[in-house]
Amino acid sequence: MNAWSTRQVYLALGQYMTCAAMLGIDTCPMEGFVPDQYDQILNLPAQGYHAVVVCPAGYRAADDKYAEMPKVRYPTDVVVEYI
Hints:
Radius of gyration: 17 Å
CATH superfamily: NADH Oxidase
Order of helices and strands: HEHEH
Oligomer: single chain
Strand order of the largest sheet: 1-2
Largest sheet: 2 strands, antiparallel
Structural class: mainly alpha
Helix content: 25-40%
Shape: extended
Distance between the termini: 34 Å
Number of domains: 1
C-alpha cells in the first residue's frame, strides 16, 4: 500500500504544478531530501503521513536574469534512441 500511495502522490503533484503555473506561480519538484527529517519537523507520523516529495512554490524575482533567457532544447535524435 505504501509503494502505491507514494506513486499516487505524483498525480496530485502534477495537478498542483499545473494549477500553480496557470496562476503564474513557479514550482520546483524535488527529491533527494531527507524524508525522516521532514517527517519529524512537520510531525507527519502523528497524522499518518510520510514525506515523499518536496515542491516549493513562489514568484520569481523581478531581477532574475535567467527568466528571459531562451530554454535549451536538444534535437529529438540527440535525446531519444529508438530500439
